[in-house]
Amino acid sequence: MGKDSALDSTIKSENGEEVPEVSYEDKLKFVSVIAKPMASRKFSKKVYKLIKKSSKQKNYLRSGLKDVQRRIRKGESGIVVFAGDVTPLDVMIHMPGVCEDKQIPYVYTPSRMDLGAAMGVKRGCLMMLVRKHDDYQDLYDEVTNEIASLDNQP
């Protein structure tokens, strides 16, 4: 009557086939060289929780390269979360520099599929912009402070 462990260790791919779930360390093997600051396993879960909470609020979560670029250019601010396993790298290599110019905190997570899953869709996502809202203010501030501490470490 308990949970079946085989069900817990599989995920559905984009084509609908079941694939065994990949561990955090294995996901780090596919991360690009520019993916710094990288969120730890515990911090990644906190970031995914923030994304899940912000997806419930209308217009407080921006996803995708084109939308995030446009919103940053128009002056929106928040936390930018990048996927670390993006290929080709050229499509988003300029975005960390843009975030630094606009003084927007950003962090990398190991997998774009995990970013999409945190948002509640079955597809992967390159990047997200999470805006501040009263419903998840404490978690937002906690994530912002931890990103600042990640930036200070070598």
From TrEMBL:
InterPro entries reported for this sequence: eL8/uL1-like, Ribosomal_eL30-like_sf, Ribosomal_eL8/eL30/eS12/Gad45, Ribosomal_eL8/Nhp2
- Disordered: annotated span: 1-22
Its GO CC terms are: nucleus; ribonucleoprotein complex
Quote one Gene Ontology molecular function term. Answer: RNA binding
- Where is it mostly found? nucleus
All residue ranges annotated as the Ribosomal protein eL8/eL30/eS12/Gadd45 domain in the record: 45-139
Organism of origin is Acartia pacifica (Copepod)
Name of the protein this chain belongs to? H/ACA snoRNP protein NHP2
Q: Which Gene3D superfamilies match?
A: 3.30.1330.30
| Subcellular location field | Nucleus
**Sequence similarity:** Belongs to the eukaryotic ribosomal protein eL8 family.
From which domain of life does this come?
Eukaryota
Q: Which UniProt keywords apply?
A: Nucleus, Ribonucleoprotein
Keyword Ribonucleoprotein listed? yes
